[in-house]
Amino acid sequence: MLEVRDLNIVFPGFALRDINLSINKGEFFALLGPTGSGKTVLLEAIAGLKAPARGKIFFDGRDVTALKPEQRNISIVYQDYALFPHLSVQQNIRYGLRFRKNGGSAQFEKFNLLIEMLGIAHLLKRYSGNLSGGEKQRVALARALIVEPDILLLDEPFSALDANTKETVQSEIKALRGALKTTTLMVTHNFSEVFSLAERVAIIKEGTVQQVGSTQDVFKTPRSKFVAEFVGMKNIFSLHQTNGKVMLGDLLELDLRELGGLYLSRQKNTGNGGGEYFIGLRPEDIVVGKQNLQTDYQIQGTVAAVSNNGVYSEVRVRAGRLDFTAYLTPNRYFELGLRENKPVRLGFDRKNINLIMEKATDA
Amino acid sequence: MKLRIDKLYLTSAFFGLLIILFIMYPIMNSLISTDGRILLQTLKDREVVNAIWTSIFTATVTTLIVFVFGVPFAYFLARNEFRGKRIVESIIDIPIVIPHTVAGIILLTLFSRQCWLGRLLENTGIEVIGTRIGIVAAMLFVSMPLLINAAKDSFAAISPKLENVSRTLGATHLQTFMLITFSIGWRGILTGMILTWARSISEFGAVVILTYHPMIAPTLIFDRFNAFGLDYSKPVSAILIVISLIIFVILRVIAKRGVQDC
């Protein structure tokens, strides 16, 4: 198990502050955050490549904070692969073995398994300059895994790949993980990669962890506005109360029951100085139609914009002063025949409403 | 089809031709105009052979010394940011801007009895002025920046991520430097070594002030020119040009081959 305890790393103009993470053995864990949030620095600190100002890192209960990178048995795969340009693919993959004392036949078997699983046997004599992005990625993975690391660190592993290659490499990583059970920590700014691969995720922003949880939980119930926006919860609206009623904009009273009760009691206790409350709705949880909808809430609005990326359609609906975003399947979109400035109904269920409290200092 | 000629390129190429002529014509003219009989005599001249050998030997020793001390320092500079780094880099470049005779004077002052270092060396039996050590000291002073800067640029061009990966795969820092950083950057370092060697073998101003005897080839050429005139200095020049060019070309070919191999 990997445990990061109160880790602080300070650079001029940037700092990672009080990072606490716990990653189980064999788990695929993701660190998700925007560019410049400190994800790679944290990854490199875990690998022993950056020294923390404070805090500890433990592997299986063993304090490794003071250990050098070569003493940690961690492999890292960078976004740009970092293949050694003066070595052939075979030499790249076998590079780490020269520093290991493992038996020769075991290494040979491992080598064969990896090149077979990754389909790179035909590349062995080539140099990195003659490889495509996907091939480089596979070689980098093989090089990282052949040394049987306790933890595999992936730094934005798919950001330089085209969509098709990305999908293929993701499948290969899944298959490799199934076979090798290596604890993996992936850094990315793309939630879809997290959703596709990771079991749990930590959201990081400006050097601090915002939320940690299972991928599903973070996806469905983000605890802050930032996390909600980052995981694609496009409908985030401020709540206010009028005459003891919880109002969404000035057009809908929400019967939030437990959530609403919590909201009202907190408002009472803290007043406006205690923070701001929002609700978040995922665009795929909003139903769009022309007539009455079978949802807990319905709002009449006007189609403000429609866009189609071939996989799904994004519809923006203006209702009062609020802009809602909903995703529709192409079939549903054509069935409804939505046009800009035409009236439309949208609806959502109570169970899909996510209450978010934003502290006053963050707002 | 009408051939389109870019006027800017044409002008630039013409200027380039002038530059090439300016470099090559005097060299070729010097080689061609040298009297063959005197050239043969010069080749048998013990003093000439010794001077050329001294030049090659001291330039090579200088290059090796800069390699041993300069390459690790260049690596340090390429991989670390620290307060005052700009000042350190500027200090390294100072020998480039100091006139070489001035460099000779300041080294002479340092190694003479006027300075504590000169007295210390003399007391320990190390003679610098008027020895090969003096020649190497003068060559070191003027040529050191070339290798250090070339090596620094070469290391800086190598992504630290390669080193990070190597370290996490189990290599120590030194192993990583040898197997990755140096192995990738050696062409840049070799280029720096060629420049250092070339600068050293062509050095005159600093050397002549610190060590007139034993003579290096440029000192001998100057000496013969003063004593016997152009006809007797030209053959030595021609021999030095040929030897320097041969070594220069061999090293450049090695460096070029390295680029193709990678």
Question: Quick recap of the structure?
Answer:
By secondary structure, chain A is α+β, with helices and mostly antiparallel strands. Chain A is built from 10 helices and 20 strands.
> What's the total count of β strands of chain B?
0
* Strand percent estimate of chain B: under 5%
Order of helices and strands of chain B: HHHHHHHHHHHH
Please indicate the percent range of residues of chain A in DSSP E strands (runs of 2 or more). 25-35%
Q: Structural class of the secondary elements of chain A?
A: alpha+beta
Task: Describe the model.
The complex is a heterodimer of chains A (363) and B (262). Chain A has 363 residues and is of the alpha+beta class. Chain A contains 10 helices and 20 strands. In chain A, a hairpin with a 2-residue loop joins β9 (200-205) and β10 (208-214). In chain A, the strands form 4 sheets. In chain A, strands 6-7-8-3-9-10 form a 6-stranded mixed sheet, with helices on both faces. The mean pLDDT of chain A is 87. Chain B has 262 residues and is an all-alpha fold. Chain B has 12 helices and no strands. Chain B has helices at 7-33, 36-44, 46-79, 85-97, 100-111, 116-123, 132-156, 160-168, 173-201, 205-210, 217-228, 230-261. Chain B is globular, with a radius of gyration of 22 Å. The model of chain B has no long low-confidence stretch (mean pLDDT 91).
